[in-house]
Prior knowledge:
Blueprint: H1 15-41, H2 44-47, H3 53-62, H4 69-92, H5 106-117, H6 122-152, H7 155-158, H8 166-179, H9 189-213, H10 223-232, H11 234-244, H12 251-256, H13 258-261, H14 263-291, H15 309-340, E1 350-351, E2 360-361, H16 363-380, H17 383-389, H18 392-412, H19 417-439, H20 447-477, H21 481-490, E3 494-503, H22 512-521, E4 523-535, E5 547-551, E6 556-563, H23 571-578, E7 591-600, H24 609-621, H25 625-628, E8 636-644
Parallel strand pairs: 3-4, 3-7, 4-6, 7-8
Antiparallel strand pairs: 1-2, 5-6
Helix pairs in contact: 1-9, 1-14, 3-4, 3-11, 4-10, 4-14, 5-6, 5-18, 6-8, 6-15, 6-16, 6-17, 6-18, 6-20, 8-16, 9-14, 9-15, 10-11, 11-19, 18-19, 20-24
Amino acid sequence: MFRKPVSQQGPHPETPESTVDLSTKSKRSRFWFLTVGCVGVVYGDIGTSPLYAFREAITQAAMGAMPQEAEVFGVLSLIIWSLIIVVTMKYVLFLLHVNNRGEGGILSLMAMAQRGARNLGSKTILLLGIIGAALFYGDASITPAISVMSAVEGISLVTPAFSNYVLPTSIIILFLLFSVQKRGTAKVSVLFGPIMVVWFLVLGIAGLSWIIQNPAILMSFNPIHGISFLLHHGMISLIVVGAVFLAVTGSETLYADLGHFGIKPIQTAWMWLVFPCLTLNYLGQGALVLADPTALTNPFFLLVPEWALAPLVALATLATITASQAVITGAYSLTRQAIQQGLLPRMEIRHTSANEEGQVYIPKINRMLLCVVLFLCIAFGSSSNLAAAYGVAVSLTMIVTSTLAFFVIWKIWNKSFLVSLLIITPFICIEGVFALANMLKIFDGGLVPLMMAAFMSVLIMTWVNGTRYLRKKDHRQAIGLSDLMEKLERDQPTQIEGTAIFLTSNPQDAPLALMQNLKHNKVLHSHNIVLTIINSDNARVPDDQRVIVDVLSSLMTRVIVTFGYMETPDVPRALMMAQCFGLEVNLDEASFFLGKRSIISDPKRGLPEWQDHIYIAMARSAASATDFYRIPYNRVVEMGMQITV
């Protein structure tokens, strides 16, 4: 029995309307769910900046004396307009739209720029991406330390006797935070949004009470106060700008987490909650310092009456843990992208949620960050000392992001060179001033994140160059797959029943494991699959574009599988999908042949000898292909071989 199309049937007074209503309600509820969620993850870092940003800036402006009205208005004006220009205009309104099919972050931007630039400037773009990623790791190390310590320091206002326990308490909290990472953020993350929503509301209310007492503080919105401060304070103004920059750290996080939440929720959360509450709090701190200059010691916690101090410290600690969690999770996500793009060796990646693909845990990165964060806490001792080290890496990361965005606008958006330059130049100029101001902190601790970034850059560049050299060497020494097939037709080896799957990086070359099997075992399976895994410069690859099957002969089939840089490779699942494209394979009986390399140093060729040792160490620490590609252990055969680098 045939049913007429809906347009030809009689009217349905309820069903279509109710369906539309349900769909609209579902979209609306999901939108607000994402908006609340992004408040916790995206704005956790920038949301804890009021704990220390104004304090550090006004302390530098006052130069040890009691701050004057012009200094308070000047500092507040600089903070407010930094939030407007850097965060609102650049990131929220502009950069969120410069995305790689919905994914943000510096490596996504690098992938887009490389796709547009092709051979023109591709090496420069790769270098910028490597530097930006390395700088992010420096930022990810400092954020948990300064955030948690600045919150715990508030307890000393409740009872001065606790001052000696700030550092041990901070270390315990951070150790526990990193220890629970292996349990995943799937359950904990649902608390992030509500906690930070309450946090921002408290920020706004605490600041508003002091603004009401001194409404003249609203004059800080006038940019002339900030400009006047810069013109009349000489070198001190540059130092203050470095402290003001602390108010916008965390901007990169909202761009990096674009793929998890989308443009509209991130923009809505900023415009209607985060930005107003941050502004109210900074203005409130300024009004407090004007009324009581002695509050300069810790203007944030002194915003509230004494009875509310302990609850505020507890809430601040929860907020800083949330901010730290967001940065740590961002480091995991960045590492996964770097591995997929060939910038780092394979690492063990554990998925901590059955529903959210982006929630992963990388044990090696977790241990590394924990060690660095604890070292920073012990070495610097307080959030004020850490503030000197904070900002250098972030300001340079912003410049790298703007530069990569220029390439995207020019080559991907097809804007003229001049128009692209006009769009990006104002941002780069402002960020250049911030970077210059932060460079003054180098000898007060700013050298630490730069050294960490330089170390990571060396590791990444060594891995990229070493892998590229070995691939070229493999290609020179390899036999073409078509040549091998001709040779096998002339001189057929002994055939055995079964399916053998050989992994190779180049689909045109015969896999090394296949050649080793023929050389040593002198047998060939009745069905051989040459499998190549390609990493796309897109974040995710649609299932209908993931697999290419090419039947070369009755004995040989070539399969090419493509994964996006935000995806975790799953070879068995991809091969199951390939059956829809004509591949005949029984994975329960197939054997996976993997080449296991033993790399040794060759001082006369390839990389410099010092890089040889770094590359070999990184290669030995890499996770096995079996784990990384989710290949069943009981189906793997490893063929050993030795190669020099």
